[in-house]
Amino acid sequence: MGIFAIGAHYNEDVSEEFIKCNIAGPGWDASKAPELHQFIRSLKVGDIVYIKSAPPSSKDIVIKGIGIITTDQVVLNSQVVSAGRDIKWLVTEHFRVPKPTEKNNVRRNTMYEEFHPDVQSAILAKLFKNGA
Q1: CB neighbours (10 Å) of residue 94?
Q2: CA 103, CA 116: separation in Å to the nearest integer?
Q3: Is the pTM of this model over 0.90?
Q4: How confident is the model at residue 21 (pLDDT cuts 50, 70, 90)?
Q5: Which residues touch 92 (CB under 8 Å, ≥6 apart)?
Q6: What is the rounded CA–CA span in Å between residue 5 and residue 114?
Q7: DSSP classification of residue 90
Q8: In terms of domain of life, where is this protein from (predicted)?
Q9: Cα 86 to the center of its chain, rounded Å
Q10: 42 Cβ contact list (under 8 Å, min separation 6)
């Protein structure tokens, strides 16, 4: 099991659509973002995902939802994303986590595995607080 961040800004913020449709994934088709499509395919049932916003000007990561991958199927017929995964959203309140000071900063990437222990702890604390 891993913890993965997914951005939800594709010309506009689609995080509410992610939550409403129980999905997350890239907003670009496979010809424009093949690595993101491969990333989505690599996720496993039980992996934790969170919707993030981390603009360079912000001192915080804004977390807009936390969920769990529920099936091993890649969803290709969504109106929201070009390819996605079914997600049970367990936390849908927005909250902030201070951006860590780090050498390998991936915060501006659309998707990435979360390795920073402070961010991992904040994600898990919210999940456990909500009874996950």
Answers
A1: 12
A2: 11
A3: yes
A4: very high
A5: 19, 64, 65
A6: 6
A7: E
A8: Bacteria
A9: 12
A10: none
Closest of 120, 123, 70, 64 to residue 92, by C-alpha: 64
Q: How far apart are CA 128 and CA 105, in angstroms?
A: 27
Which runs of E-coded beta strand occur in the chain? 3-7, 23-24, 48-53, 60-75, 84-91, 95-98, 111-113
Length of the chain: 132
- Euclidean distance between CA atoms 37 and 100, whole angstroms: 27
* Cβ(47)–Cβ(90) below 8 Å: no
Going by CATH, does the domain composed of 3-129 fall within 3.30.70? no
Give me the residue spans of the domains in the chain: 3-129
Helix (H, G, I), strand (E, B) or coil at 127: helix
DSSP structure string for 22-51: TEE--SS-TTT-HHHHHHHHH--TT-EEEE
pLDDT tens, residue by residue, 32-81: 999 999 999 999 999 999 999 988 888 999 999 999 999 999 998 888 88
